[in-house]
Design goal:
Blueprint: H1 10-18, E1 25-29, E2 42-43, E3 53-54, E4 58-61, E5 75-82, E6 97-101, E7 113-116, E8 120-122, E9 127-130, E10 140-141, E11 152-154, H2 162-170, E12 175-179, E13 183-189, E14 193-194, E15 206-207, H3 210-220, E16 224-231, H4 235-248, E17 251-255, H5 266-272, E18 276-281, E19 285-286, E20 292-296, E21 299-304, H6 308-326, H7 331-336, E22 339-344, E23 355-365, E24 368-373, H8 381-386, E25 389-393, E26 405-410
Parallel strand pairs: 5-6, 13-16, 13-17, 14-15, 17-21, 19-23, 22-24
Antiparallel strand pairs: 1-12, 2-11, 3-10, 4-6, 4-7, 5-9, 8-9, 18-20, 20-21, 22-26, 23-24, 23-25, 25-26
Helix pairs in contact: 1-6, 3-6, 4-5
The chain binds ligand LQZAQKY5 and molybdate ion (MOO).
C-alpha cells in the first residue's frame, strides 16, 4: 500500500500557507468593501469634521461669558441669530451674545463653546439665561478632532469592518483598493455520491454532504464558491474536472480520494497536471491525516479527506487560513480570530505524536464558558452540527484533564443550537 508522501505538522502547513502571495488588487465600491482587505495604506485626504461643529443642540457662546453662572445667578446673554442645519453661520458672535445652533451645525466665528439648551431659559426679549458654565471647547468638535488630515487610517492588510467603511466614507472615499477574493471550485469525488434530491439512494450510495458544507465555508471565509461538481472515481474524469476547474478558479477543493486506498486518485491526478507541485501529502493530525496541498503555477489545490467531519475540520484549520491569505490576511491574524477560552468538562485523551482536533460543544454557566467534547466517528455529520468548534491537543501532549482551561477554535460565526432532540451517547 502506498504511503503518505510528505507528512507535515499543522504548524508546517500553516507556514507554507503564510508564504502564499495575496491575489492582485482591484477597486470596489464602499457598498461592497466590508470584509475586504486593503491592498494599500489609506490616509485621510481631509480633516473630519472640516469645520467647527456643534455636537449638541444649544447656544454657541464665549465660555468666559458663562463663568460662575448658576441656577440662582444665571448669565444673561442676547440671542443674535440662529445657525441652520447644513449651512454656514451667518453671524459672528460678540461678547455677551448667544447664537442658537442645532446638533451638527456650524459654530459661528467668535464662539468657543456650546451651552446645551437644557441649561438655558428663554426669558423673552431675545434674551436667554444660562444656568451652568461651559469651558472653552465644550460640546464642540474642532476641524480634525475626529480624523486628522494626512493621518494613516488603515495599513495595507487591514480587513475592513462596518465602522471602517464609515471612516472611508467620512473622508470622501467612494471606492477603495483591496485584494481580489479567490474563486473556489468544490469538487467531490466518489462513485457513491448522489445528489441530496436523488429520488432513491440505493445501499452503498450516500447523499453529497461535503459539496454543500465546503461551499458554505468558502463563503464564510469571504471567498466566492464557483463551480461545484461531483466526479466519479475515474482518473480521466477527475483529471479533466481539475483541469477545467483550474482554468477559472484560483483554488480547487477536492474532497474524498485523498487517502491511500487503491481508488484514491488525487495524487495521481496531480501527476497528470502540468507544473503541479505536491507540498503536503498527509498532516499529523486526527481527523484529517489524508490532507493534500499542491500548487499548480499560481493556483492552489487542496485534497480533503472525504469524511465530512474531517473535511470540515481541515477546512477550518488550513483551507480557511489559505483563503484569507490570498485575500491579504496573514495566517497569524486569521488563526488568532474566532477562538474562545473554555473549561473542559471531561478528560480529553490523546495519543502522543499526533495532534488531535476534538469537537466540543460550548455552554455557559455562572459566567464561565464550558466545553463538552462531542465524541463520534468523523463519518458522522451530526457530530459537527452539535459542535461549536474544536480543541487541539498538540502532538507532544497526552490529553487534557477535565477542569483545564483550553482554547476552542470556533466553526463559522453563526452559532445555533443543534436540532431539538436527544443527545447521542
Ligand atoms: N486502512 C485505512 N483506511 C482509512 C484510513 C487509513 O489510514 N487506513 N484513513 C481513514 C481516514 S482517517 C479518512 S479521513 C478516510 C479518507 O478517505 P478519502 O479522503 O480517501 O475519502 P474517501 O475514501 O473518498 O471517503 C471517505 C468517506 O467519506 C465519504 N464521503 C466522501 N465524499 C463525501 C461527500 N461529498 N459527502 C458525504 N460523504 C462523503 C465517503 O463515502 C467515505 O465514506 O479514509 C479512512 N480510511
Ligand atoms: O484522519 Mo480521518 O480524516 O480521521 O477521518
Amino acid at each position: 500500500m502506498p504511503e503518505f508522501l510528505k507528512v507535515k505538522t499543522a504548524d508546517e502547513v500553516l507556514n507554507l500557507i503564510e508564504d502564499f502571495a495575496p491575489l492582485e488588487e482591484e477597486t470596489v465600491l464602499l457598498e461592497a468593501a466590508a470584509g475586504r482587505v486593503l491592498s494599500r495604506n489609506v490616509e485621510a485626504s481631509c480633516h473630519v469634521p472640516h469645520f467647527r461643529r456643534a455636537v449638541m443642540d444649544g447656544y454657541a457662546v464665549r465660555a468666559r461669558d458663562t463663568f460662575g453662572a448658576s441656577e440662582s445667578l444665571p448669565a444673561l446673554l442676547t440671542v443674535v441669530g440662529e445657525v441652520f442645519m447644513g449651512q454656514p453661520a451667518q453671524h459672528t458672535l460678540g461678547p455677551g451674545q448667544a447664537i442658537a445652533v442645532p446638533t451638527g451645525g456650524a459654530m459661528p466665528e467668535g464662539a468657543d463653546a456650546l451651552v446645551m439648551v437644557e441649561y438655558t431659559q428663554d426669558v423673552g426679549d431675545g434674551t436667554i439665561e444660562v444656568t451652568r458654565p461651559v469651558a472653552p471647547g465644550d460640546n464642540v468638535l474642532e476641524p480634525g478632532d475626529d480624523i486628522a488630515e494626512a493621518s494613516l487610517l488603515f495599513p495595507a492588510g487591514w480587513q475592513l469592518r462596518a465602522q471602517d467603511v464609515g471612516v472611508l466614507a467620512a473622508v470622501g472615499m467612494r471606492s477603495v483598493s483591496v485584494f481580489r477574493v479567490p474563486r473556489v471550485a468544490v469538487l467531490s469525488t466518489g462513485d457513491e455520491i448522489v445528489s441530496p434530491d436523488a429520488p432513491e439512494v440505493p445501499v452503498g450510495k450516500i447523499r453529497d454532504i461535503n459539496t454543500f458544507v465546503l461551499a458554505a465555508q468558502v463563503r464564510e471565509a469571504g471567498a466566492v464558491p464557483g463551480w461545484t461538481h461531483v466526479v466519479p472515481d475515474d482518473l480521466d474524469q477527475l483529471a479533466a474536472a481539475c483541469r477545467q476547474a483550474l482554468t477559472d478558479h484560483e483554488v480547487v477543493l477536492l474532497s474524498g480520494g485523498s487517502s491511500v486506498g487503491a481508488r484514491d486518485y488525487t495524487v495521481q491526478v496531480l501527476e497528470r497536471l502540468n507544473g503541479a507541485e505536491l507540498l503536503v501529502h498527509g498532516v499529523a493530525i486526527r481527523p484529517g491525516k489524508p490532507t493534500i496541498l499542491a500548487r499548480i503555477g499560481s493556483r492552489i489545490l487542496w485534497g480533503l479527506p472525504g469524511q465530512p467531519a474531517s473535511a470540515m475540520i481541515v477546512f477550518t484549520a488550513f483551507v480557511r487560513p489559505s483563503l484569507l491569505r490570498l485575500q491579504g490576511i496573514s495566517v497569524d491574524r486569521s488563526s488568532r480570530t474566532r477562538t474562545s477560552r473554555a473549561v473542559l468538562q471531561r478528560n480529553l485523551p490523546s495519543v502522543h505524536g499526533r495532534a488531535d482536533y476534538i469537537r466540543v460543544k460550548l455552554s455557559e454557566e455562572d459566567g464561565q464558558v464550558l466545553a463538552e467534547p462531542v465524541f463520534g466517528s468523523s463519518a458522522m455529520i451530526s457530530t459537527l452540527a452539535r459542535a461549536d468548534g474544536y480543541v487541539i491537543v498538540p502532538e507532544h501532549v497526552e490529553g487534557y484533564e477535565a477542569g483545564t482551561e483550553v482554547t476552542v477554535h470556533l466553526f463559522g460565526s453563526i452559532s445555533r443550537p443543534f436540532l431539538a432532540g436527544k443527545e447521542e451517547t
